[in-house]
Amino acid sequence: MRGFLTSSPGLSPAVASSIGVACAAALALPLALPTPAAAAGRSAHDSAPARPAGTGLPAGAAVPGSTRSLPLVPLTRDRVLGTAPEQGLYRAGVARFSLVGVVWDDPDAELHGRVQVRTRSTVTGKWSGWQDVETHNGEHGADPGTAERTSRHVRGATAPLWVGDSDGVDLRVRADLAGDAGARTGKGGGPWLVLPSGLRLELVDPGQEAPPLGPPADASRTGPDTDEAIATSAANTDITGFGAREIPALSRWATERELARLQGSAWAKPYVGARPKIVTRRGWGADESLRERGFVYTKKVKAAFVHHTASGNKYTCAQSPSVIRGIYRYHVKSMGWRDIGYNFLVDKCGSIYEGRAGGVTKAVLGAHTLGFNSNSMGIAVIGTYGASKPSGAAVTGIARLTAWKLGLFGADPRAKTYLTSGGGNLYPKGKNVRLHVISGHRDGFATDCPGKSLYAKLGTARSSAARYQGR
């Protein structure tokens, strides 16, 4: 990454076999340029007003988030094949948002350029400095040929960037130069590379977290659960109570007993790590009505791919649920995926969060490593770890999670395994590839993810996970 720019147990067959991509109109936030073109009004596809007064919501209920999407406008008179090499938007005094990104029409098109943004804080009223937005360029997503990948709703996108509570934005996208950038003086036309068509700025308000689930008689406060929310909680009832906001940690002995129960045997497979505490989707406040209905599973979990979200490090651990809600909304409403792409997320304090719905003990098909989503899981550390070192707590979180989840499927964190490529930029479709059981994203796809500093810690995660398994 360049830094700038089937069925589920307990569910009806109709629900459990649903496969697809969430139909989402990615909608947008007004941004205005100091040009007449930038004075264009708000997109007609606004998904929801941000934190409106007098919503009529039940007392204490969650305030829904929103996604706004506005087309970028040219910042220069230059044109290459009808596309301006510099595009952007500026607007102050807009509805609040906390996460930004840029999307475009073709998910297979790559953005070769630099994406930068600055935002105005609602707390201080001051503008931030310019921040780079990582371009991603197709390295995440469902495998080629799958229903999720081929949906007409899927778009190309940058990484999302967490900017905190903001009410103003200034964005610029500048195409790379073809060939030697040093040969250009900066005056006149060409040779610019062509930016993807349909560039749009996404402004995401993650909304407020829902209150704790109350008793049925208290539904007037919390609101009734949707079918999707019920199915999501039910997917974890093999190991926790319905509606749990977190799955508690277990000792290794208790974990082995639980695994034996799940396997219907007198004893568990050897070498499973103690189950760590996991914050469920209800715990971080997922709006289950956003995602596609139903769950999709693969056969097993043979490997874990470690990622970073590339969303920046300017978040507190108390904000982690909001960051995840923002990424979830960006993946579904802006990028057109069926759900958040990662199976799990880990924050800088080492807290572990359930990602894609379907049950934390199960082999849920994610959209994290293009070409290698089958029989694997994706773990994203929240933050950007190219130059910044990940915290020891985050690395420990990876180790504890993989010791447990890989142990459920009998995998040794220090070993290597074979996965069949679904098609990507490193390995052609159908190739049997030997990979570390705990791999970095870059091992399966040509990318900088999970960042040089986090990738350097994967050896530590492997050895720690193996030790937690008792190896």
UniProtKB/TrEMBL annotation:
Transmembrane residue ranges: none
Signal peptide boundaries: 1-39
Entry-linked InterPro entries: Amidase/PGRP_sf, Amidase_domain, PGRP, PGRP_domain_met/bac
Assigned keywords, A-Z: Signal
Protein family per UniProt: Belongs to the N-acetylmuramoyl-L-alanine amidase 2 family.
Domain Peptidoglycan recognition protein family span(s) in chain numbering: 276-424
Chain residue ranges for the region called Disordered: 42-70, 131-152, 204-227
Designated name of the protein: Peptidoglycan recognition protein
Organism (species): Streptomyces sp. 900105245
Biased composition (Basic and acidic residues): 133-142
The keyword Signal is annotated on this UniProt entry: yes
